[in-house]
Amino acid sequence: MYDVAPRERIHELDAVRGFGLCGIPVVIIWQMTDMTATVPSGEAMDPLRHVLSVLVEGRFFPIFAFLFGLSFALFLDSATERTARPRLVLARRLIALGVLGLVHQRFQPGEALLPYAVAGAVILLPASALPLWLILTAGLVGTVGVALTLGGGLALVPGLFLLGLAAGRYDLVVGLRGRTWQLAAIFALTLPAALVTAVWQWRTPYLDLWTSSIEPIAGLFGALAYVSGLLLVLRTGYFEVLTEVLASMGRMALTNYVSATALILVAESHLRLGGTTRYPALLGLAAGIVVFQAFVSYLWLSWFRYGPLEWVWRCVTWWRIVPLGKPEPEGVASIGLPRR
Questions:
Q1: Residues 6+ apart with CB under 8 A from 143
Q2: pLDDT at 263
Q3: What stretches of 235-278 show up as alpha helix (H) in DSSP?
Q4: Which among 34, 87, 179, 315 is least buried, having the fewest CB atoms inside 10 angstroms?
Q5: What is the pLDDT of residues 124-152, one digit of tens each?
Q6: What residue ranges of the chain have pLDDT lower than 50?
């Protein structure tokens, strides 16, 4: 949920971030409402919950964690060009995120902003001064090693942060548009692995999942397959509208993440999903949130440079009021035409 300087925005990464937002509400809803995961016997998962666990759970949060580390690297490079004390700017940015996360956690226990801010301060800031090979090695060990031993969830965040930081340092996103064959190779390798591990996860008894490493492994392969497949689809040229919509959502990722909590709380007062297995209603609510946020994000960014929380965050980061409205197109103001 980091945002980089406007001149450094990478449209495809914004679209990937927006894609991640489409899956997050599903997991947030059942966590916030404390929905029942199993059938009455308690020995097996509810069928639809089982499907959602295999398709969604653990597949989308690694995308955000990796992009957080990547955007940290991009923002640090930008801050280095603009100030003599870039790490102080980043520290202030992480503190602001932590404060927001502390408030947000009162409404969504288990939210990600506060852990991200803490891990960013403890891990990313010091690691940004380390050699690249060491960052990459630590990232691989912290991701693969943790997935195989400690399981998934927030335990994977440090490793994914470091992998994202390494990707930024190695300039892997530079010329991303020209790396179609590399993306195709990643997709070709990770899709079979994602399918095999997903089937393995599906067949693992519910109670055994608590002690198995299959969930985080399947989640990581699924995330890689989703992202590489999405990027290949978006660059075919047939999905320009989808790209614009996802990119708008991604540019307002912080606002959308926090506002989803408010929307779920309002909806839950009417739907009463807690303690039930009404997963069709969950899917309807998640879809409604995504469609609403996609519309609002696209409309808002047609008038403003940043989302509401992104603007506040940027103001605190740079400790000054930054412009929010879009600049007038050249020649428009002189003839009195409205802004688009």
A1: 156, 159, 160, 162, 163, 220
A2: 97
A3: 240-251, 253-271
A4: 34
A5: 999 999 999 999 999 999 999 999 887 77
A6: 2-7, 331-340
Angstrom distance (rounded) from CA 68 to CA 157: 10
Beta bridge pairs of residue 45: 38
What is the predicted pLDDT for the residue at 332?
A: 42
pLDDT of res. 28 = 95
Instruction: Enter the tokens of residue 322.
Output: 């930054």
What would the 3-class secondary structure string for 303-332 be?
Answer: CECCCHHHHHHHHHHHCCCCCCECCCCCCH
How many residues are recorded in the chain? 340
CA dist 169 and 134 (Å) reads: 12
Residue 4 has a pLDDT of 43
Tokens standing for residue 130:
């380390």
Report the alpha-carbon distance of residue 232 to residue 243 in Å, rounded: 12
Mean pLDDT of the chain: 89
pTM of structure: 0.90
Three-state secondary structure call for residue 31: helix
Find all residues with CB under 8 Å of 84, minimum gap 6, and list them.
none
Return the pLDDT at 83: 87
Distances (CA, A) of 266 to 33, 186, 302: 11, 41, 27
pLDDT tens-digit series, residues 228-267: 999 999 888 788 899 999 999 999 999 999 999 999 999 9
CA 329 to chain centroid: 32
CB distance 87 to 121 below 8 Å? no
314 closest CA partner among 73, 15, 90, 121:
90
Cα angle 208, 213, 215; round to 5: 85
SS3 assignment, position 252: coil
Query: Which of 35, 50, 30 is closest to 275 using CA atoms?
Result: 35
Task: Give start and end residues of each alpha helix (H) in 145-278.
Answer: 146-149, 157-169, 180-203, 214-234, 240-251, 253-271
| Amino acid (one-letter) located at 230 | L
Any idea what DSSP says for residue 204? S
